[in-house]
Amino acid sequence: METIYILWLRQIKRYLRSHSRIVGTLGQPLLFMIALGFGFGPIYARAGNGNYLQFLVPGIISQSVLFTSLFNGVEVIWDRQFGFLKETLVAPVSRFNIMIGRTLGGATIACLQGLIVFSLSLFIGFRPISWQAVIPMILMTFLIALAFTALGTAIASTLDDMHGFQLIMNFLVMPLFFLSGALFPLKNLPKIMEIITKIDPLTYGVDGLRAILIGSSHFNLGLDSLVLIFLCFIFLTAGAWLFSKVQI
Amino acid sequence: MSEDNQPIIEVKNVTKKFGPPDNQLTAVNDISFKVYPGEIFAFLGPNGAGKTTTIKMLTTLLKPTSGDIRINGYNPVKNQDEVRKSFGIVFQDPSLDDELTAYENMYFHGVLYHVESKLRQKRIEELLKIVDLWDKKNDLVKTFSGGTKRRLEIARALIHHPKIFFLDEPTLGLDPQTRNQIWQYILNLNQKEGITVFFTTHYMEEAEKIAKWIAIIDYGKIVKTGTVESLKQETQTTSLEEAFLKLTGKKIREEEASPLDRMRLRRKFRHH
Predict the structure, then answer these.
(1) For residue range B202-240, what is the model confidence (pLDDT) as tens digits?
(2) Touching check for A88 and chain B: CB below 8 Å?
(3) What domain range includes position A151?
(4) Chain-centre distance for alpha carbon B150
(5) What residue ranges define each of the domains in chain B, with the CATH number in brackets?
(6) Which of A185, A205, B154, B213 is at 20 to 30 A from B181, Cα to Cα?
């Protein structure tokens, strides 16, 4: 237990010390909220859908959680490059514990990042249906974060170097985000888009957060949570297995 | 070496092959040797001879293709944790966390090796004082020079009081002052604590000065073992370096770059 805690703590300390990283990763969600939120707001309202910013913010929270958590998972490659991974791999600790500690740390950071984006959104006019929604929001954010940190770790465990990183960004992170319904409603989509959005795991995170924060959703909160819990289980298992195969 | 003494490291007919069956590379080819408790053992060889692969097998990072290894009486494949508790290691490349302080690096290691909290604190203080880093304990490792990092890695590897100390080219790229100092620490430890030292180096004069027993490996095979004196006698040379060159030839070895090397190279290009 203490070893899991210490690996968790390491991730947190690294995060809190890299101020530039914290500020840097907030720029993009803020830009999205302002540019898209206010830019598309009028059209969205004219189409009779109400306030676009309210609709958009849960999507942008999901986006920042997705980016941060996948990035944290992929950090395994950095640790490999800078050698710290070796230090943990020769310690009398099981690979499973190492992977769990790191993943929980990465997920916690992503969750914090989501909370910060949520706080920022309040300044530009976002209002949740009730303040009690904050607690379930944190839980939902953590589920999203856990699933994607584990996915990042799984992918990073199969990569030798940073070559694959751009590939992950372009062919995984971006599609996951843009095809998740973070930016648009899932109602009345063309058939092919409907199928794609249903396959995208982030869709359920976005939908879950919408259910919690603005009280409207495409599926329902129960289904969203179930899908995410199931994904956490799958990705954690895959991540632990692939990480156990890492050779230095 | 007395006969009743049990070896602390025992390697019997160990082979390691990499790659698919039709295109195999034999990195280590049927090697055997023994290291006795309290000994200082130098494992020498040209680049790509199989030194690091052997260390990785001894330290549970790689499984041998065949053969048997005992570390402190345990098998690194079957009793991983027991073996891991028995040794401390300083790798060829730094393995510290740059974003943490010297103290935190030590502390994290202590926790990973299940050293109980009070004892942990005591040992961290002791060891940081030995390597003259107690004053810098709260500095981030990224502010340290190469030599300082090495000293910290040596201190860190000893928190759990290992019986065996592996050092893979511990003085690579350091100036003579720092190299000297680092060997002083290691010799002290060996004399005071009786810790077994297993090291590799390309500096033959270091091995000549420090090692009590030497094994020379080339193309995955051990070509000679013995004391500095016996190696010099057998090859009729006057220094270990000459003996080494006589045994392994003067041909320069090509080593295939690991993904890590390639990555470093790219970073270098990007920075310049």
Answers:
(1) 999 999 999 999 999 999 999 999 999 999 999 999 999
(2) yes
(3) 2-244
(4) 12
(5) 9-271 (3.40.50.300)
(6) B213
